[in-house]
Protein 1
Amino acid sequence: MCGIVGLFLKNPDLRPQLGAHVATMLIGMTERGPDSAGIAVYHRPVAAGQCKLTVFHADPHYHWREIGGALGEAFDAEVDVEHKSNHAVITVAADEAAARAWIARHHPEVRVMGYGQLMEVYKDMGLPAEVARKYGLAAMEGSHAIGHTRMATESAVTTEHSHPFTAAPDMCLVHNGSLSNHNNLRRWLRRRGLEFETDNDSEVAARYFAYRLGEGASLAEALEAGLRDLDGFYTFTMGTRDGFAVLRDGIACKPAVLAETDDWVAMASEFRSLADLPGVEKAVIWEPVPAIVYTWSVQGTA
Amino acid sequence: MIAVDLSETLVRELNGRLHALPPDTNERHWRILNPKGRHALAVGLSAPIEVEIDGHAGYYCAGMNKEATVVVNGHCGVGVAENIMSGEVRVRGNASQSAAASGQGGLVVIEGDASARCGISMKGVDIVVGGSVGHMSAFMAQSGHLVVCGNAGASLGDSIYEAVLYVQGTVESLGADCIEKEMTPAHRETLAGLLARAGIAADPKRFRRYGSARKLYNFHIDHADAY
């Protein structure tokens, strides 16, 4: 069992409260996932030519400023480092892939949780309320966010095995369920040059979708390809630069509820997590149909 | 009318109060406020009371119901009225998966849509759905009636025994050993009665009937010795 939440704000006036609403939604899914929790928040776009990396090291006193300084020297670029518990957000005027390669080469002990122009990823062990508090989720503004509360079944309870999983810039995936062909699919993707960081089945799904997107598939096409290639149980929610997508497997053992008003679109494993959203009493609420891809993207708001 | 506000009262406390009611109680009308999708609301009732839930309910609402009438003024999560024994459960909105699963008696009315596995393993309950049902509905249905005023998803009535299914709209596909059967005047009369009890206006003449072909292994007399 796991819990998923996602909130996409259509009304920009609500953006200052994004984190507060998502924190309530995430905490609402505590019973479905008390082992670890994670969020991807889309906000604070960096300037053109810059990228931001959310990085993790288990030591909360890790020397992030020194690493930021060295990264700046290597790229002869300005670097901003924001330290939050055992995570840091590093903004650098450099190519994102080159910056990640530099970190992998010089600091292999550091894990890059997310990267891109907008997305920041925070994930950690513990109850959703603790994780939300540790990273100040309730104070975060933004256009949209995806969250996950994990009850582990397929692999260990660690920060690395927590969701969301990132496999492309500003892209992340959360998963409720378990895949049965992840080993096969991981080998298939490795042969095509992809690298994996964990033995987690959901990471395989994230990299699979990134691979399809990299081939030129649209978001909906990538997810539809997943219906053919992924075997197992899943409700997925994928965050992208300008929206999010939801997909359930055809058998649909894993739950999902969608709700929409003029101001927002929200997704959660259960209605409990939607019950306190503003105006929910007037929302259109429905269960996503199995094996149908749902996507939302709003041009010009992200 | 006794009102219980779940923003102030725990579900466990609410259910405890409902369970403690004797069959001849005078506290017959209850209204539950702020359910907010909480699970296990009004489960295990066994007195002839009326409980109205004002909002959306979570999982297993009114499960194991006996005698009571439970009305949900909203949607319901997984397993509403699962294993209902008697009484009536009415959902004014939609119901998620496995509505009325393994129900043994009573009436379950979903005024909106029900999703996958509606009436799975039903054992005598009557279910009337105002809208459509999802895939694998009435899987292994043993007895009782499932009335669907809209459409039915894939594999309707897979491995069905003696339950009777009435569908007004389209059936995406029939499950193993489920076939269409003749709609006789007696069936139309039964269906009219079910619709009347559910308070749903529909013309019985527009429905088709489905049930077991009785061809699966367990129906075959030559296999009787295996047990």
Protein 2
Amino acid sequence: MSADAKSHYDAIVIGGGHNGLVTAAYLARAGKSVLVLERRHVLGGAAVTEEVFPGFKFSVCSYVVSLLRPEIIRELDLPRHGLEILPLDGTFTPMSNGDYLWRVNDHFKTRREIARHSKLDAEAYDEYGKAMVDMGRFVKPILSMTPVDPTSRDWKGFVDLLRLGRRFQALSPGDQYNQVQLMSMSAIDFLDQWFETDVLKATMSASGIIGTFLGVRSPGTAYVLLHHYMGEIDGAFRSWGFARGGTGAISNAIADAAREAGAEIRTNAAIARIATRNGKATGVVLENGQEISAQVVCSSVDPRLTFLKMMESKLLPSDFVEDIERYKFRGSSGKVNLALDGLPDFRCLPGKGAHLRGAISISPSVDYMERAYDEAKYGHFSRRPYVDIVIPSLTDPSVAPPGKHVMSCFVQYAPYNLKGNWDTEREAFGDTVVDTIAEHAPNLKSLIRHRQVLTPLDLEREFGLSEGNIFQGELTLEQLFFLRPAPGWAQYRTPVRNLYLCGSATHPGGGIMGAPGRNAAMKLLSDWRRGRVRA
Amino acid sequence: MPETRDVVIIGGGHNGLVAAAYLAKAGFSPLVLERRETVGGAAVTEEIHPGFRCPTLAHSAGPLLPHIARELDLERHGARWLRPQVRVLALSPVGKHLPLYDDPARTATALARHSEKDAQRYGEFHESLGRIGRLARPLLSLTPPSVDAPEAGDVWKLLKLGKDFRRLPRKDAYRLLRWGPMAVADLVSEWFQTELLRAAIAARGIYGMFGGPWSAGTGANLLVQAAIEPHSAGPADFIQGGMGALTAALAAAARGLGAEIRCGSHVARVDVRDGQARGVVLSTGEQIPARAVVSNADPKRTFLSLIDPTDLDPDFLNRIRNFRSSGAVGKVNLALAQPPRFQGLDGDGALLSGRIHIGPEIDYLERAFDAAKYGAFSPHPYCDVTIPTVLDPSLAPAGAHVMSVTVQYAPERLREGDWASRREAFGDAVVQTLEEYAPGLSSAILARQVITPRELEDVYGLTGGHIFHGEQALDQIFTMRPLLGWARYRTPIPGLYLCGAGTHPGGRVTGAPGSNAAREIAADLKRAR
């Protein structure tokens, strides 16, 4: 990027993660001059591919894609910009008794597999799938919605609320019932109503705890079960998958679309602070001292960084500062990336079969999952953690040298607030993860050529995720919808005029959805049209 | 054929009695059928040792809604409330106890010994919770609106409530919305730093629940409790003569208004013909025809054991089976030869006059719950203790005391052994826990009654041993209690109603479910006339 670039823009986007890039792309397409500033040397934020060890390319943080909004793929024409999603078929769950559960996208195959464990559950699985698809239809439009504020005194808020109520009313009684349960129950309580097979419930419930400091028995974890059925509505294409070239390829495709629309993107551009005048954002000051002015600043980094680090809190209302201070991050997950000389051989299903091409989930029983959580509650990493493993090099050989593999292990729980020090416990944590997997695939240890261990502390330092929370703040009910990130400030605006939020800390939250980025851009553009954006 | 009654009420618990009294007041002549030899259900006073009378299950009389006490003139019928100045004494293992007084200013002064900051914040918390509680209070006496076809009256009441909600200071409004889904542990740590205070307040969110302070949604339970008793420290009132005196007064009021109450009458089933409830059949075979049958029993007992399953839609039955009613509470009642001596208290009896909280830290409470998750009772349980004889010496011989201990957690099903074989071990764990705070207590024990979930179900008829008839989680309250679509005290069987804690607004001795149900039943019966 040329150093003599402009010094004034319509909009500056802080952070070149996928949401920041989505916002930039939409603003640029609307004719605004946009500058994206990324602190690191690569784009993508947590959706990034890096060659950590020579020849081995890792999706360092986020590793699968499921919910990238179809309208974004369409509107930004991402396939033309190089996005290719490869299927990730199924979830393989080794059990401790030598058996396994292997669910695949093919409904009938999965049904037969479940029947091996329980005939009743196989039948319930059909009904469950149908119910979930219905629920997904109800929830999906909410993702693209600017949250209503039930305390707002204006009639529009009231009408929005009423409209939401009417949509709920229009559901069948059975669906209403499921919906309420999904929003409030624990994943296990919810699944208990449908299934009896312990391992099935354990492995399904895992999706409910990812990125949260909750256990599978904690109320509020059922909701995420739904996400697995929202991709499927649009057909198999957008269910779970990998991006060819790793997760960073998604960010690169979005960046490409943004650039094509005229956005400027700079890396190695760390921001020291957001410049304000008379309570309005006027631009940013880089760490190298350079000042860049803009009509609007959109921050895709989390609210703690935005408001407590990049601004002086005295510029903000004290209530708001209090809300941001108590916004909960408390990261609970870590990541172990392994460069392998070969493929792991699972004791319960030996060989290099298709089960290695999907997700491999170390979630053998409900108690196992819950005990992993119990340890984290009291400040320890799980001695036997939940691990979600993928081996993308099987599907996309470009990410590893010939015959070699990359294995990505998402680990929970690794509490940010450890009793002890992550810098000294990092390798012990890595060993625990490897030992855990090796209990099911004993040859693993001899295959490991390199190992990268990322603790929540590393996620914070390296990727700017406060307390290592992968979703920029917990996805719990009291931090969702009109409460995300703070009550009264869930509509992408902030108490500082011309400063907007567009990251995962806004509705509808984290994961590679792009929805916060798009929603924020839409809100901002509408404010712009109505003359709310004024210097 | 015996004469047809207006209304038959199955179960003479406090809600059944309240319903009977209100229905009698409305001009009907209800008949209450109680299986046991005494009315009261979970609100009873029983002799646990010769000369020692104890509120065997519920021990806090504070929650009874004041307007019910007034409208039924309970004082005239013998109820005498006793209010301690210390609502809660939170015990510290190192003798640094924390009293929560009726007067929040005194509490703040006591708190200053622990934390200056908390002492300052307590007042605001007390006020805020009070405002929210008082706002939500009218909800307790409201029939939850129908979600599908709200009636004009419901809509009006809700709009009024919405108006009140908007009139709340915005800060409180957001608190109300945020607190509901939260874990009560998070809620209290947003306010306070003193662990003992955190734990004592958080306990209100987990009382009676199969959840620990880290369980999301326990905030909602705290809000329900705040509506029942807006005071930040929770209920503390006692009744002279124990809880049984309260239900005796309710029974006297109901009788005075024209209700009939029969004890020792075990209802075997509800008589359903042509899809309509026609009366009940007793275990003796006696048939009692009635225009309306009202069940004070919990939803599971009502639909799964009093009704022939073929009279219900399988989908409905399935949902009732999934109604979560697995309890977490046990009870230990002690007859004591002399007053217990707690470490660090120099004989200040007034401090022991309210509830005594054992559970010094959030983590302590959570660990107690952890055990229950894996099917074991807590080795170090959370205990809500009262010594009713401090304010009401009539319950025991002179100088002697009774101690009533509500214990969490005691899961419905044990993984190792069963309750019959583990009952005494459970009692021992409780006494040992008490002994840590009151050394020498064991040697003062003359008799011990241990009530496990097994007895709660077998003796008191609480399915799953759940003292609230079912979890008060976000998906089982208000319009969803017991089930979405059936929260208006009516059931899929015309003529059959629910009036117990399994309906809105849930458990505790408020009388609200009974009085709400009576209002709906009276309206239906009048319409049918």
